[in-house]
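Justification of resources, computational component.

The compute hours requested in this renewal are based largely on the per-chain cost of generating structure records like the one below. Each record pairs the submitted sequence with a full structure-token output. That output is archived, and it is also reused by downstream analysis tasks.
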Amino acid sequence: MNLQAVYEYDFQEWINHHITLLNEGRWNEVDTEHLVNELEDMGKSNLRELDSRFIVLIAHLLKWEYQFKQLQGKWITFTGGSWKGTISIQRSNIIKLLKQNPSLQNSLQHAISKAYPDALELAIEETGLAESTFPLICPYTIEQLLDKKFYPECKPDV
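The structure output for this chain reads:
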């Protein structure tokens, strides 16, 4: 079997074949180059998920802090309910990801720093507020981001 061709043509078949090889202890037949690449990608996918969830979470916390009062002033009935829902879901999913992959704890600060520029861009786009409205670096600690009860104090109309 040409593993290179199978890898490029039918990835699922390549996986199934390697499961068989590994279960049977046929180590010398394993396509180690691609297997190592796939394992590295699996680890990176957890980091990408963490990054993606922090982008959405931080953007919504920024919107909460810098736009909530403005929208409440326009619509007296505005409660930020959908924002709360999104914040809650992102926190829950981050916590779940960390429970499933405890070593990701070591990457939290880096993930937050990496996510912040994109979160800031999203908050600017969704609020229409000037970039200068927001902090240059993430104003929230890891503990605050993961605290299900934390919501930043709303700034007066900006």
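Residues 32 and 38 are 10 Å apart (CA to CA). The longest helix spans residues 32-74.
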